[in-house]
Amino acid sequence: MHGVKTPVILVAALSLLLTSCSETGGPTGPAPSDVGPSLRTITGTVVLPQASTIDASALEVLSLAERSPVHPGGGFTLRIPDVELPQVILVTDDGPEPLLLGYVWPDDVGVTVDAHTTAAALVAMNPFTVMFSPETRATVSAAAQEKPGWASLAALIEASLEGSAGGNLGLALEPATLQLAADVAIDVLDDFPPGVSPFADPWIENATGDSIVLANPGPFHFAASIAPVDGGAPFVVLVESARERVSVDPGWPPSGGTAGVTWTPVDLGDGVFDIASTQGDFSSLDATTATGLASRANLARGIIELLAIASGVTFELDARDLGISPAATSSALTPATRSGDTYGFVRALAELAESESDAIARWFWGENHVDCGDYVADVCRLLWGLTFSTEVLAAGESGIPFFAGLVTSEPQDNRTVSQLDGIMVVVVDRSPPRAAFAAGAPFVLPRSSIAFDASGSTDPDNDASELEVRWDWENDGVWDTSWSLWKTAEHVFDEPGAYEVVLQVRDPHSLNDSVTHTVNVGGGEATAKHVVVFRDVVPWEPEVPPILEQMLEVLGYTLGPGTGQYEVVTSGDMSSIELVPHSDLVVIQNDQTQGFYDAYARNQVRFMSFVHEGGTMLWEACDLGWHGGSIELAGIVLPGAVTL
């Protein structure tokens, strides 16, 4: 769906599974009592702008439960999950993306779907609203309609429908729409007091008899690996979490908390045991290991929470029934987990859920539910685009509820406990190491060797000489070296690009920590085939001549639209000019007018999407000069959240 992540640089049962449940779409009857949510029926009307030439009878409405046709007058009847949260329904044609969205509240029986409900749905689908209660969603929805950007968002959606072309809500087709929806959501959440996510790590307590209890106060699952010190057979236990205990209050970022603790009892018997807990890094889904067991449970919880932003469905499903490939999970989620990249994780999860939408449909309904799969795929594309847009505008804030803790929580402690006559005694409480490394240079040329030094890694319980390290040169989920006590290494990158290098360190008790740094290889004008210079006026004119053109001509570029040429483009073309990743070098010039910076602000998600897909952009961030423009006043978030 999307290109490889490039960090911003300022330079019998089987036969049933293989058939759809009906030719007309939707379950052929009420959902089975033991699979999927219960359903209810709504009626509604799709309202298109007066100037639109779209044929309403060619449209369909889609929920997590079923697909239904739209009648010539715009009316429809649709079954939807009967849930306590509001939910999004989609209006589609044969285009690549939905045209309109409905936002259905739990008490709604008849609904209207138009530009305003689409705006409400897009704002509500912001990733920062994950785990919001129905009351909180109602508060945020009402506040959004009072924001200055609300009318502009609805008008932008309506204008995009004033023609015959459909499928207009994707990042590729209408990035300005998703940008404005993200901006309104941030503006609303910023009105509330900022919070934190104070979810604590699990702990161990004594219990009656020979048992202990593993306490989990957080929203995600852990798994404990329990190994008898005397050499008995080790085993793993899932440390459950209860979603209904979690509450999230709005804010920028939102604040999360739990109203209680989930207790998991374990019958140990007498003896001494090493107990290590983890929330998993998605490198394995093998339920016989603590990492795999926790990863599988949190993958299931993560998919439910992501889709619940749109579907409203939050009920628990058995993680063992989720038939997503372990290899697909590892390659998608492990890199973002290792690098602590919350936005990258949410986007990767949305992309994974889109590609595995049929498996998720079977998980929900117990059959290969085509309509549910289509809903999941369409919603995940929107969630991907809204997450990316929010990341661009968020100025570095990454405290997305649930997901931030899942990705960035500290490694868990390892404890040795003794159990004698029903009494538990904590013998040792060990802490994990702290990974650190330095690269020989932040920028290197392709095919040049670069040195890496991990000797700065430390451990509170062990000498640094006892720590082992291993490296992943591209953060692709595959370790490129074996464990070694040797702390230095060298590597050669053959191709230009921005590479995330991951170091993992482990101590003698297998407690570990990882750290990620970016190394930039090549880049700049040497890799550009065509240069696009954006400006409305020459910087510092008339005192300073157009020096940039002189530089480009010295480098061999000529004026023109082709290979080996450069163009000078005004802000009026920012929303329409085609920018080609891996070919164009985009230059945003210094000292522009306020109108220029305002135009960039309206299109910044579009520019950053170009960078994400592999393009290179040079941002000359010097303002308030001869032409008076202010980057800050325009509301621009500079690439990489660099501040003025």
Give a quick precis of the structure.
This protein has 644 residues and is an alpha+beta fold. It is built from 15 helices and 29 strands.
Summarize the structure in words.
- By secondary structure, this protein is of the alpha+beta class.
- The chain has 15 helices and 29 strands.
- The strands form eight sheets. A five-stranded antiparallel β-sheet has the order 11-10-15-16-17. A five-stranded parallel β-sheet has the order 26-27-25-28-29, sandwiched between helices. It has a four-stranded antiparallel β-sheet with strand order 3-2-5-6.
- The chain is globular.
- Residues 1-34 have low confidence and may be disordered.
